């Protein structure tokens, strides 16, 4: 009996560890119950808004805001409201420090479902959607926890019967029942490891949906409409409208894709590059402020993802348009190629690339140092260790990510933007679709400043394949 008790106790410990490691619920575009990071270019500021995971409701909602280097300080007015309801509390002022840093406030939520976080800088208001999830326990978890609870009760009863009873069969029966309960609970725990990672949560109700949309289901194409009166050297707003290609209605079902609702890349005629994140002002309406350095035509690319589209074909869309800026056109600048270069503040970067052949994967790397010593305090930006934007001779744009170590290993404890532990080497894998001259922009974050390094490379054409029988 003593050996059986010890074995059961060991199994209890294993089951408890499995229960503690149960996956949280999911919502397409992010993990419900985990922190939600959303980048937003609001007015003169480049921000990352962090909506911390929400516990039982009603309860507190912690919101932290990262103000990036180069963005002015000042006060933001922040409030939260459920969709279709009045705000759950008064506005709270958040003071941002000059030069970059983190500040936060605590708000209040009183129901599950779809919510909207409003950030007002005195000129415009960004509205960020998020979900307060219901505490939904999957069936296998009920079976596992119930089985271990029943096994514990039966084990105690068996020990009591063995200690104080005169007959031998009650402890054996109770011990057998405890062992059966442990087997059932452990089986449920083991089978859960092969189940989908968490329960899909409806982004409106905060609860599991009655029906699910297959991952990768096609969604209508988004039309991007842009309106701006750009002048070289002046900071002006770009108003964007997202319109459903099938219905003509505003598109308001965007999900957070790589820590942003929309990734906007602007390429100017003088070689200017900007990677921005427009603030959502309302359904299908976004705005971002931009200062062109040159007059002439600017190409605008928006990367976005619609709810329910998944990550398969038709999931992430890259839509584009053009804008013209008044003023003299600057001569095209040519960035340096591969090799070493010195940056501001004593920082240096070495850019390397493996075999640059169209149609074949290439490894591109940027290794950072300062005063001859490796840099090991890079921060994650947009959930990644680094970003690489590419544009080819045919104007094809690529957006490549360097995955953080935790994302590669599947760990849920990936460091966020507030942790400076990356570097010195950031690697990307990319397959250039066409030969010719390609322009690249490597981007990392350090001291809350996004550092961009432009590079130009020549990609060779693939060798012709030998015909069969030759």
From TrEMBL:
Q: Which UniProt keywords apply?
A: Membrane, Signal, Transmembrane, Transmembrane helix
Query: Which residues constitute the signal peptide according to the record?
Result: 1-22
Transmembrane intervals: 139-165, 172-191
Keyword check for Transmembrane helix: yes
Question: What's the name of the protein?
Answer: Secreted protein
Q: Which organism is it from?
A: Pseudonocardia aurantiaca
The taxonomy runs: Bacteria, Bacillati, Actinomycetota, Actinomycetes, Pseudonocardiales
């Amino acid at each position: 009996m003593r050996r059986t008790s010890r074995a059961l106790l060991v199994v209890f410990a294993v089951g408890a560890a499995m229960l503690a490691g149960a996956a949280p619920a999911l919502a397409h575009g992010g993990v419900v119950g985990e922190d939600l990071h959303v980048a937003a270019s609001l007015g003169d500021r480049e921000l990352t808004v962090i909506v911390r995971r929400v516990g039982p409701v009603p309860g507190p909602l912690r919101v932290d805001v990262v103000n990036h280097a180069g963005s002015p300080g000042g006060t933001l007015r922040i409030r939260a409201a459920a969709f279709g309801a009045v705000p759950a509390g008064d506005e709270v002022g958040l003071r941002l420090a000059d030069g970059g840093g983190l500040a936060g406030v605590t708000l209040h939520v009183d129901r599950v479902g779809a919510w909207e976080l409003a950030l007002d800088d005195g000129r415009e208001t960004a509205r960020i959607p998020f979900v307060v999830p219901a505490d939904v326990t999957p069936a296998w978890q009920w079976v596992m926890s119930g089985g271990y609870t029943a096994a514990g009760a039966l084990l105690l009863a068996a020990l009591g019967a063995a200690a104080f009873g005169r007959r031998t069969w009650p402890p054996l029966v109770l011990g057998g029942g405890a062992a059966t309960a442990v087997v059932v609970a452990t089986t449920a725990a083991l089978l859960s490891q092969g189940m989908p990672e968490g329960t899909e949560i409806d982004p409106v109700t905060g609860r599991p949906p009655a029906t699910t949309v297959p991952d990768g289901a096609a969604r209508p194409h988004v039309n991007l409409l842009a309106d701006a009166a750009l002048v070289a050297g002046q900071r002006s707003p770009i108003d964007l409208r997202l319109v459903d290609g099938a219905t003509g209605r505003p598109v308001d079902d965007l999900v957070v894709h790589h820590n942003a609702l929309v990734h906007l890349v602007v390429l100017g005629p003088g070689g200017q590059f900007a990677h921005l994140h427009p603030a959502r002002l309302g359904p299908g309406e976004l705005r971002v402020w931009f200062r062109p350095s040159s007059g002439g035509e600017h190409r605008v690319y928006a990367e976005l993802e619609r709810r329910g589209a998944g990550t398969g074909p038709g999931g992430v869309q890259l839509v584009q348009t053009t804008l013209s800026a008044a003023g003299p056109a600057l001569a095209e600048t040519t960035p340096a190629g591969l090799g070493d270069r010195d940056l501001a503040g004593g920082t240096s970067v070495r850019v390397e690339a493996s075999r640059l052949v169209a149609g074949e994967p290439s490894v591109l790397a940027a290794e950072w140092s300062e005063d001859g010593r490796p840099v090991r305090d890079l921060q994650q930006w947009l959930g990644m260790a680094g970003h690489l934007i590419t544009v080819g001779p045919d104007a094809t744009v690529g957006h490549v990510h360097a995955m953080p170590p935790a994302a590669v290993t599947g760990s849920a404890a990936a460091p966020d933007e507030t942790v400076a532990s990356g570097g010195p080497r950031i690697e990307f894998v990319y397959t250039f679709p066409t030969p010719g001259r390609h322009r690249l922009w490597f981007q990392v974050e350090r001291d809350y400043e996004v550092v961009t390094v432009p590079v130009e490379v020549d990609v060779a054409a693939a060798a012709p394949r030998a015909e069969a029988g030759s």
